[in-house]
Amino acid sequence: MGFGTNTVICSVKLTDDGKKALLKLSKGDMRRALNVLQACHAAYDLIGETEIYNCTGNPHPTDIETIVNSMLSDEFTTSYQSELQTTFKIFIICTLGYFFQ
Predict the structure, then answer these.
(1) With contact defined as beta carbons under 8 Å apart, do 55 and 43 qualify?
(2) Fold for domain 2-56?
(3) I want to staple 49 with a disulfide (CB 3.0 to 4.6 A). Which of 15, 21, 30, 44 is the partner?
C-alpha cells in the first residue's frame, strides 16, 4: 500500500530512496534485506536512505563523495585535518570497498 513516495508494508514505512539503499546494500539477499528492515523499524518510524545507512553502519554515499572530493582537491594534510578526521581512516577503507563493489 503506497502513500505518495512512501511505501507501507506490515507497518514498516519505507521511502523510495530507502528502498533503493536497501536493495543496494542487501545485494539481492532477501535475508539481509529483512534483517536490515527489522533493525531500522525498531529504531525509526519512517525509513529512508539515511536511516538505512545509519542502521547498517555503512558510510552514506554523500560522505564518501565529500571525502573523495577533499582527497582529490585538497592537500593530504588538509583532508586529514578536516572535520572528518575522526572517521577519515574508516572512510578510506569503506571508500575503497565501495569502488570495488
Answers:
(1) yes
(2) Helicase, Ruva Protein; domain 3 (1.10.8)
(3) 21
What are the backbone dihedrals phi and psi of residue 45, each rounded to the nearest 5 degrees, phi first?
-80, -40
User: Rounded to an integer, what distance in angstroms lies between the CA atom of residue 65 and that of residue 73?
Assistant: 12
Cell of 66: 565529500
Q: Which residue has the cell 532477501?
A: 30
Q: Global pTM?
A: 0.68
Q: Are strands 2-3 and 12-15 parallel, antiparallel or unpaired?
A: unpaired
Q: Residue 57, exposed/middle/buried by CB under 10 A (0-12, 13-18, 19+)?
A: exposed
To 5 degrees, how large is the angle CA 82–CA 54–CA 1? Answer: 140
List the grid coordinates of 77. Answer: 594534510
46-94, pLDDT tens digit by residue? 999 999 998 988 888 887 787 778 778 888 777 767 655 556 656 666 6
